[in-house]
Amino acid sequence: VALRIPCPHCGLRPYTEFSFGGELRPIDASGAEGDFARVFLPENAAGPQQERWFHAMGCRRWLTITRDTTRNEVT
Amino acid sequence: VDGREIPLHEGDTVASAMYRAQIRVFNRSLKHHRPRGLYCGTGDCPNCLVTVDGVPGIRSCTEPAHDGMHIRREQGWPSTEFDLLRITDRMQELMPVGFYYKTFIKPRFAWETAEKVIRRATGVGTLPRDPTTSDEKPEALHMHTDVLVIGAGVAGLAAGAAAAGRGARVVVCDEGSIGAAVAPGPTLDRIRELEADLRALPGVTVLENHAAVGVYEGPMVPLVSRERLVQVHPGSVIVATGAAEAHGVFSGNDIPGVWLGRGAARMAGVHRVAPGRRAVVVVRTEEGLGHARTLAGSGVQVMVLADPPLAGGLPDGVKVLENAELVRAEGGKALTGVVVRQGGRERRIRCDALVLSLGHAPRDSLLRMAPTEPVVGAGDVILPGCSLEEAEASGKAAGLGEASTTEPRAAGTPHPHDDGYVCLCEDVGVKDLEKAWQEGYRSSEILKRYTTATMGPCQGAMCGQHLSCFARDHADVEDVPRAAARTTARPPARPATLETLAAAVHEVIEKHTALHRIHLASGAQMGRSGSWVRPFNYGDWREEYRAVRERVSVMDVGTLGKFLVAGRDGGALLDRIFPVRMKDLAPPHSRYMLALDEAGYVMDDGLICALDDGTHYLTSTSGGADRMEAWLRNWADRLELHAHIVNRTSELGSVLVAGPFARELLSLLCDDDISNEAFPYATSARITVSGIPCLALRVGFVGELAFELHHRRSQGPELWNALTEAGAPFGLMPHGLDALELLRLEKGHIYLGQDTLPDDTPYKLGLGFAVAMDKPDFVGRTALERISELPLERKLVGLEFAFGDSSLRGEPLQVGDRVVGRVTSCERSDSLNKVIGLGWLRAIDGAFPDRLTARGVAADVVPVPFYDPEGVSLRA
């Protein structure tokens, strides 16, 4: 399987059990500009990126991982 | 074939049976409609594609033939044999390379007509109108293994055995039957031995007739057969797909009668059909010598063109021309002769077959497809032209994990010629490439894009080498590495039908409520609504509608999303993320609630109920339950709030009891005080109905006095039966989604997804009342603040039509000729004696029109609700 994600509750599981929740963006960014950037201006980094994943077919908990987008590996 | 019966021999392929029946022209070429005949015989070239039993694009040379097959040749008008569009071949000068991009672009309006003509004249095959596998859908499965070996020739079988021998689980696949494409001889003997060894080993799965279409990240390799799609997830991949014989490029190289060696040898040696009476065989490989022997042995008069001179021996009677070079082939629908140059002199040789063994073209696309994945090659694919022993040794090394390189050995370079078809699939000749080069397309990648060479069914199997050699010969020396690189290999490496690739995508989980069987027993028309199967009606939806408006009715609403939110910060979480006003929401009150995303767009709607134990009970739309749960959990996590979120959707059932007599009915089954004073609209109460504990909500979706009874799922049938029995004297009828559609429409209540678009804000939907902008924060607040400064450019409105029915739904709304919106809901209401609907409208110059037409029917914008605007009934 292309990507395995370490779930703190369920162990190393294939990515197909998860749904992607997008980049981790700070939610306490100040004011309208911060809000705008969070919603509309993703970094889309080539390289390590912090992301949210929901273990939909497992514990149904959210987790934050760092994934290298160029290698599709959790680092 | 084309309506004519032809005889079959044992072991025939479709192609061999057709060839034996004197069919020489199998196909017409894509652009120039040139006649094309059998060429490679190994499934690598596009020349023999036919339609088999309605499925287009079947490679007849590898397709086993059986009785009753219907074969149709695909190209040409009126027929493949006699193709009037052949005239395009004479007009080549008028259709230069890239003419699509140049010729019909101006004037712009002409393109539409031109496109129709071009579409008719080009293309490969015709898609079947109906599904081709009528009875059984292809199945999809996943397979996990340590090693996947693609190709079960000598190298592949040796690799599989070596890997299995060291304890690995092994899957070996081949696009055909093992050994079927190999002529009798030492190679086939060795294959049989290796196959027997491999099959005897534990942990080995052999999949014949499964073609690998690509190598994806993971790695993951999809294999396709007629019956199924197998997604293999191996630890590593060994590609042992071998090599095709190299394509020859020279003038006349596509005339029927020109063969690659293996194709001709198979036809003569295996199928016992002579590919001609007089054959010129061009031999530059060991293998070619064997082909010459096979042909001579089957009675063909053979002349060998050897350059460089031969080492091995040939049977008596075979003439050999040494140091002779092939110049061109001549003929129309069939080969009549070749011209060769020997010692500076050209001479013409009469013949009806030209057989080429020029070199090898590794079938390396799978090898090159995923450079970062653990994929190695074995055998001919990396050592083109290798011996049997070399192939076996390289397979064994790969199987043991000792293969050190995937870099193929050079395959030998084709001789440059100034004419002939480089790409048989797309009719791209040397002259086309030269023209493109002059126009500035100066690397194999952009030559490919401009000329479409390598883009056809063979995906560069024949022409890839030539394209990169052409670029190498034309590029400046220092630019060669870039300009002459092979073009990127992409899936599919082998043809796959869309039907197979889509195997199982329509197999989805169906959800049933606890009342499913009762609905079926009541004769309900069931249908899909999202993933749920729900009753649409029980026979007469207009009567069901009247039961709700005039008497009493029940509906199964167990599909609603149902959530309990508890914990220290449960209320704070809901207040922080939903736009609903919560500070005055005390038990036992409930309130309509929107869920917005961060862009301020409406994601879902539902009800929020404050319960007396300090927790909150939430309902969401039936389709939105999973998303709502994930969404709640995400925000609780991100905001670090202590909230417990319990998705009770499948654990609880819910029955709606609605109608003027709803309270009377419940009173018969319930001892709790459910009077309007004790239990008013928009509150909740814990009551016991027929002995079953329920959380009851006074709701208003249908616009009548209504109670939603949420209960333990297992008690659903008991509750439903008690209600319907007790309701019989009132004239109770259950209602389904069809009746609900009109009931809610009369109230102007929206259906998310049906009446809304993904970028609808509460303002566009007229739901501004559900947004408490005076709250300091909620998800989407910043966005709404910004949006509310802008003029409203689109909104959902109520519509009244002059006449019509539900078929108006989906029609454009127009002012004169101008389309300004769309009808999203429409139904005829008997009780209002009107045709009503909802639809969205765009503003014209800052103002919304109020007189419209839909499909010619006059439609006026009117306020909603249509029914009981003061809400007297639902508060009764």
Shape designation of chain B: elongated
Number of helices of chain B: 23
Amino- and carboxy-terminal Cα gap of chain B: 76 Å
Shape of chain A: globular
* Mean pLDDT over the full residue set of chain A: 90
Q: What structural category do the secondary elements of chain A indicate?
A: mainly beta
Q: Approximately how much beta-strand content do the residues of chain A carry?
A: 35-45%
- Low-pLDDT residue spans of chain A: none
Q: Percent of residues of chain B in beta strands?
A: 25-35%
Describe it for me?
The complex is a heterodimer of chains A (75) and B (876). The two termini of chain A are 16 Å apart. Chain A has a four-stranded antiparallel β-sheet, with no helix packed on it. With 75 residues, chain A is mainly beta. The model of chain A has no long low-confidence stretch (mean pLDDT 90). Chain A has one helix spanning 31-40, and strands at 4-7, 11-14, 19-23, 48-54, 62-68, 73-74. In chain A, 13% of the residues lie in helices and 39% in strands. Chain A is globular, with a radius of gyration of 13 Å. Chain A is built from one helix and six strands, in the order βββαβββ. Chain B is α+β, with helices and mostly antiparallel strands and 876 residues long. Helices cover 23% and strands 26% of the residues of chain B. Chain B has 23 helices and 43 strands. In chain B, strands 6, 7, 8, 9, 10, 11 and 22 form a seven-stranded mixed β-sheet that branches. In chain B, a hairpin with a 2-residue loop joins strand 39 (812-815) and strand 40. The longest helix of chain B is centred in the N-terminal third of the chain and has 15 residues, at 186-200. Chain B is elongated. Chain B starts with 13 loop residues before the first helix and ends in a 14-residue tail after the last strand.
